């Protein structure tokens, strides 16, 4: 409610506001005076700062250039670089130490000379000779950077022993980067340099935790930085005017002994942003401050007199304005009250909830809102809730207190074209409202009006409608039949396409939007001849559904077999639902053809198909199965037991076990067995294969499989196996002859020793000069030689004993056994065996057969050396593990294998030796043993002048 204007209070408020305006304006003016008067002062300070920082930059840059050139001229030459590469630390120290001492004599602030290798390892600290070998990559970022960029690098950095200004120079020898050399300068050096140039006192501070080897003991700290410069008493007292937590900002000032000083700071972090050191320089600005203060006092006095005069004048004229304002207010107050009452009546009679907010607070509301919320007025509502949004229920898709970080009503105002909804509770029931909002630009306050329209019933109806439409759409689109809806506008004379599902589009190869609204006979030209159009008309008149039996529909566009159902729905539209049976027709035709082709293929391939029905134990055979078994009377083969009677008795149990084990384990069945034909009484070899079909309980339903006559293949395989066994025997007999020759060769020397010892004993007996000691020595020597003969027999017995037993062995042990057989023969021919056994894994295999292959490869290598004049004969033997296999390699340096025959050497009866010494079976049988018996691989190749054989084996499990 608008109250009567209180002009006295208004006048007081205006004067009060005016007073504050003058005060603020005065402060602002004084500030301008300070700024304008202080410009000269600031310009002086700015010039000093600019000069100060330029001076420091010049000092650092000049020293960087100076010491870079010094390193290059004084410390770098090829001799020094060669000593670094040769790791000759002592000689390098002797060269560099005098130079470093001379440099320190010229400048006491040079603290370190250091050489670091390209991998970041400290090679030589000339200043600390005994400290070297530590890696600095992870400790000093500058080391990592120069090793990466290989360019001169300058800056502050704390290493393991000092905070220093470092000049780092990369070193190259023959174009290859080998490391760098660096000089470290105590940062106090720059304090003296800059003091000489600018004439002001300075001090160095270094972060306490960075203080290392070259630090000065100091108890004076500023913000964690320790003083590292020796100062006179006055300078130190002046620094102590700074607070302990001083954060080293520029232009900080302080007073000392009646004088004013300003402190300038420079960061010692030239290389990177990490702060290691700080420089502080102190400037006396006492004279500048006094002149500035006098000028400001005079200006403030003049300004105060001016503001007092202005204030008195404004107060006089404000009294006159106050009287006129009161009259104007009384004139319009009545009109405002009338409009306010009118708006209230309109709001209260609205069917919607209307509220007005002001700065997120409820300002006013209509009667409908108070009825809904259960409050009498805004005051009572505001006691419980801060905002109307407290009544909103949070839910996705509905307005909450804030949306996208915006206050809810502001979000609605910014998105006025969207529909906004909110949920609120009334008597425990959720009510949905549509919200619209607009701004009330009637005063300076942020007022907004919002209208809440109850749409709960319409939302519910809309939801029900959507659900029904969804059910209809799902049924219409997802039914397995093609569905078309026709409508008529002339009482059943013509029918137009109203809708169709996606299956129609797919079957008829057309698009819905292209045919909607067209006549049925425009789209399907053969519909009348097909008889469907007349049935549609009849259903429309009689309301009785009809079925059109399967028939062939054909026009210029499509052709196919269709089965149609026609019925009328409540809005008089006609629905035609049909199934496309074209594929079924084509499949049936194809099936008939395929059945014929299958029967023919079975006859050609001698493969028949069969089925076993578990419940009845019946078997069903194709014609070819009867043909393979030469069944005279098909009625005699009906059940599984009948089938078993045709199998040789020796194979029945094996076949039954394989079949019923595959059922038990639910695996595929495969079996090869023999049958006795009924007609000719011949023995045939057949191979049975099948897959089993089980029900949900895991019980066998039926087995479906094939039977193939493999008599021809099996007879060939038996013949090949017999031939292979003959070749194996030939190879072994040939090897046995060679072994006997080796035994004779190895026995020759021990037998000679035995014979000589026996002759000596006989001679001593005849001459009657026999002595007991001599006799014992001779007998002992004979016994030793007989033991050697026995050992030779044992070694060769291992080679000839049967090897059809899987053993877990080390391949190196098998090589040892093989070398016992052929080792002496290799020694006698000056052939050196070089072994490298890396494999430590045991494998399960036939060790005797593997030894036979290794002996054969070693003998072949020996014979290759005998055919060629090789000065240094070597055989290289190695083993290594690779994944789950062991790789065995046997190489000789006898010149390799002729590339023209390398692909033939594993063929039977192929030999490069003459007929007397070579059978051509050695490598062939080696390949058979490795690949068929040991399930591995063997290959031959040349490696430079070496012939190599590589064998890959894995466990036989």
Keywords summarizing the entry:
957 residues, alpha+beta, six-stranded antiparallel sheet, five-stranded antiparallel sheet
Outline:
The chain is an alpha+beta fold and 957 residues long.
Descriptive report:
The protein is an alpha+beta fold and 957 residues long. The strands form eight sheets. The chain has a six-stranded antiparallel β-sheet, sandwiched between helices. Strands 2-1-5-4-3 form a five-stranded antiparallel β-sheet, sandwiched between helices. The chain is flat, with a radius of gyration of 56 Å. It starts with 6 loop residues before the first helix and ends with a strand. The relative contact order is 0.03. The model has no long low-confidence stretch (mean pLDDT 79).
Q: Main β-sheet, in a few words? A: 6 strands, antiparallel
Strand proportion, as a percent range, falls in 25-35%
Give the N-to-C terminal Cα separation. 102 Å
Structural class: alpha+beta
Helix content: 40-55%
Oligomer: single chain
User: Mean pLDDT, as a whole number?
Assistant: 79
């Amino acid at each position: 409610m608008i109250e009567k204007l209180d002009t006295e209070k208004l006048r007081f408020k205006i004067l009060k506001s005016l007073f504050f305006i003058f005060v603020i304006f005065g402060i602002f003016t004084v500030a301008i005076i300070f700024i304008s008067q202080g410009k000269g002062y600031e310009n002086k300070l700015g010039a000093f700062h600019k000069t100060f920082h330029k001076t420091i930059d010049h000092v650092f840059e000049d020293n960087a250039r100076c010491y870079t050139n010094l390193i290059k001229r004084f410390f770098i030459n090829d001799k020094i670089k060669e000593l670094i590469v040769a790791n000759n630390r002592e000689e390098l120290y002797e060269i560099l130490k005098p130079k470093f001492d001379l440099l320190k004599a010229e400048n006491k602030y040079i603290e370190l000379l250091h050489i670091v290798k390209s991998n970041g390892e400290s090679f030589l600290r000339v200043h600390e000779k005994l400290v070297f070998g530590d890696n600095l990559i992870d400790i000093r970022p500058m080391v990592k950077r120069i090793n990466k960029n290989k360019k001169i690098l300058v800056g502050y950095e704390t290493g393991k022993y000092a905070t220093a200004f470092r000049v780092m120079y990369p070193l190259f020898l023959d174009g290859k980067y080998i490391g760098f050399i660096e000089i470290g300068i105590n940062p106090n050096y720059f304090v003296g340099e800059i003091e000489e140039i600018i004439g002001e006192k300075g001090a160095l501070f270094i972060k306490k935790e960075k203080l290392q080897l070259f630090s000065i003991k100091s108890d004076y700290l500023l913000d964690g930085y320790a003083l590292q410069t020796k100062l006179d008493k006055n300078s130190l007292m002046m620094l102590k005017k700074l607070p302990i937590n001083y954060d080293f900002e520029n232009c900080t000032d302080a007073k000392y002994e009646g004088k004013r000083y300003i402190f300038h700071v420079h960061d010692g972090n030239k290389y990177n942003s990490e702060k290691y050191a700080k420089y502080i320089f102190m400037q006396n600005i006492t004279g500048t401050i006094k002149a500035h203060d006098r000028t400001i006092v005079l200006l403030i006095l003049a300004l105060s007199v001016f503001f007092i005069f202005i204030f008195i004048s404004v107060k006089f004229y404000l009294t006159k304005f106050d009287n006129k304002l009161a009259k104007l207010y009384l004139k319009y107050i009545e009109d405002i009250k009338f409009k306010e009452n009118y708006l209230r009546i309109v709001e209260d009679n609205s069917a919607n909830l209307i509220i007005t907010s002001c700065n997120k607070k409820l300002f006013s509301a209509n009667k409908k809102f108070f009825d809904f919320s259960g409050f009498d007025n805004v005051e009572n509502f505001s006691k419980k809730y801060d905002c109307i949004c407290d009544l909103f229920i949070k839910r996705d898709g509905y307005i909450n207190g804030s949306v996208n970080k915006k206050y809810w009503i502001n979000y609605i105002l910014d998105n006025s074209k969207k529909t906004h909804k909110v949920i609120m509770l009334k008597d425990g029931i959720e009510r949905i409202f549509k919200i619209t909002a607009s701004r009330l630009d009637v005063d300076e306050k942020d007022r907004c009006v919002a209208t809440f329209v109850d749409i709960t019933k319409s939302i519910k109806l809309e939801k029900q409608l959507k659900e029904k439409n969804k059910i209809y759409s799902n049924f219409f689109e997802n039914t397995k039949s093609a569905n078309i809806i026709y409508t008529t506008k002339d009482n059943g004379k013509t029918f137009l396409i109203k809708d169709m599902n996606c299956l129609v589009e797919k079957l008829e190869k057309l698009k819905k939007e292209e045919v909607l609204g067209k006549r049925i006979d425009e789209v399907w030209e053969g519909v009348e001849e097909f008889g469907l159009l007349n049935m549609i008309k009849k259903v429309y008149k009689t309301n009785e559904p009809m079925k059109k039996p399967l028939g062939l529909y054909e026009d210029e566009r499509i052709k196919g077999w269709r089965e149609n159902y026609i019925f009328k729905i409540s809005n008089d539209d006609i629905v035609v639902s049909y199934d496309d049976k074209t594929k079924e027709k084509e499949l049936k035709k194809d099936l008939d053809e395929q059945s014929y082709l299958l029967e023919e293929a079975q006859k050609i391939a001698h493969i028949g198909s069969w089925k076993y029905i578990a419940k009845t134990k019946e078997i069903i055979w194709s014609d070819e199965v009867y043909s393979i078994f030469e069944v005279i009377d098909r009625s005699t083969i009906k059940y599984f037991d009948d089938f078993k009677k045709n199998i040789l008795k020796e194979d029945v149990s094996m076949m039954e076990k394989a079949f019923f084990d595959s059922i038990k384990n639910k695996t595929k069945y495969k079996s090869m067995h023999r049958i006795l034909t009924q007609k000719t009484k011949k023995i045939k070899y057949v191979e049975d294969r099948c897959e089993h079909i089980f029900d949900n309980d895991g019980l066998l339903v039926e087995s479906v499989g094939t039977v193939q006559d493999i008599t021809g293949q099996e007879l060939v395989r038996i013949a090949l196996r017999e031939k292979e066994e003959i070749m194996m025997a030939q190879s072994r007999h040939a090897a046995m002859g060679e072994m006997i020759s080796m035994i004779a060769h190895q026995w020759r020397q021990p037998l000679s020793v035995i014979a000589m010892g026996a002759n000596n004993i006989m001679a001593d007996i005849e001459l009657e000069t026999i002595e007991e000691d001599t006799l014992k020595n001779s007998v002992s020597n004979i016994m030793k030689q007989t033991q050697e003969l026995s050992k030779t027999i044992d070694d060769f017995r291992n080679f000839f004993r049967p090897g059809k037993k899987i053993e877990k062995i080390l391949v190196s042990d098998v090589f040892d056994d093989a070398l016992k057989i052929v080792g002496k023969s290799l020694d006698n021919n000056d052939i050196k065996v070089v072994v490298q056994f890396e494999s430590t894994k045991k494998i399960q295999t036939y060790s005797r057969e593997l030894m036979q292959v290794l002996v054969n490869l070693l003998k072949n290598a020996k014979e290759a050396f005998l055919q060629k004049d090789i000065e240094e004969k070597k055989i290289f033997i190695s083993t290594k593990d690779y994944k789950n296999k062991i790789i065995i390699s046997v190489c000789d340096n006898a010149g390799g294998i002729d590339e023209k025959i390398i692909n033939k050497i594993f063929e039977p009866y192929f030999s490069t030796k003459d007929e007397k010494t070579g059978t051509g079976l050695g490598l062939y049988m080696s390949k058979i043993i490795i690949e068929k018996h040991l399930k591995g691989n063997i290959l031959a190749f040349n490696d430079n002048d070496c012939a190599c054989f590589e064998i890959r084996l894995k466990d036989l499990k």
